[in-house]
Write a structure and sequence with these properties.
- By secondary structure, the protein is of the alpha/beta class.
- The chain is built from seven helices and eleven strands.
- The strands form two sheets. Strands 1, 2, 3, 4, 5, 6, 7, 8 and 11 form a nine-stranded mixed sheet that branches.
Length: about 260
């Protein structure tokens, strides 16, 4: 007998993204969406598709919000996805194979194919970009990280699934940049609260390292124009992270 699957997601102002996302997981036993205060029709679109919708506007970061969302799930296994992601048919089959015969003490990683300025990237560190998203509901949950959260599964065997998760990372460059800036700010605040420090030398060393890592070590040049642009974007994101941390360290930022 196949185990029950709960697709779990967190969302805010994602009404335009939801229909295709939900269509790709409509075969799941249940879909749970935790809304963090949408000002558009996100909850209505989800409910119309049969999704179980909950709301929590006390934002404490991505990790805790995913924990809250998972608490509403009832399936044996959780598939955690975002509203800008879509399950391919091959990945669906891999997931169903797991539900039919799960490996004890295992969690499952999925290759994400990330979209950037008109192209699904094949290199640049953006593919296969494996993320651990399928796991037993009662055994694992996400950590508390405000950003760059991940599944807490240190003692688990990680098994790679076949099939891709399509990720519409950057459809609109301005919106993508704003999201990156928000991530950088949250990252710096979290590190500052933990007593982490940086210097001017550290800022520029990390920034240059991010550019070279994306372009050369991760093969960004093989992704053409988008690869070069992504290398600059990653360097900019890194610069923003470490500069905000530097400013927080010295009391130069109001966010301190």
């Amino acid at each position: 007998m196949s185990l029950r699957l709960s697709v779990v997601m967190i969302a805010k102002n994602a009404a335009d993204l939801l229909p295709d996302c939900l269509a790709s997981v409509a075969w799941a036993d249940e879909i749970v969406l935790l809304d963090s205060g949408s000002e558009d029709a996100t909850p209505d679109v989800a409910r119309a598709a049969g999704v179980k919708v909950y709301t929590n506007t006390d934002w404490q970061g991505y990790g805790l919000q995913r924990q809250r969302a998972q608490s509403y799930a009832t399936g044996d296994y959780v598939l955690m996805i975002d509203t800008d992601e879509r399950i391919t048919p091959e990945l669906r089959q891999s997931i169903q194979n797991v539900l039919n015969a799960p490996a004890p003490g295992a969690v499952y990683s999925i290759a994400r194919r990330n979209y950037f300025l008109g192209r699904f990237m094949r290199h640049s560190g953006w593919y296969p970009d494996r993320v651990t998203r399928l796991y037993a509901r009662t055994e694992y949950q996400y950590n508390d990280n405000r950003v760059h959260e991940s599944l807490a599964c240190d003692n688990a065997q990680v098994i790679a699934l076949n099939g891709d998760l399509l990720h519409l990372t950057c459809r609109d460059f301005a919106s993508f940049q704003q999201k990156q800036l928000n991530y950088a700010t949250a990252w710096a605040q979290e590190r500052h609260q933990r007593g982490k420090k940086t210097s001017l030398t550290g800022i520029f060393a990390h920034t240059l390292g991010a550019f070279l890592k994306t372009l050369l070590l991760r093969g960004g040049m093989l992704d053409g124009k988008q690869g070069w642009l992504l290398a600059v974007v990653n360097a900019q994101y890194t610069f923003n992270k470490y500069t905000e941390l530097w400013a927080l360290n010295r009391g130069y930022s109001e966010k301190a």
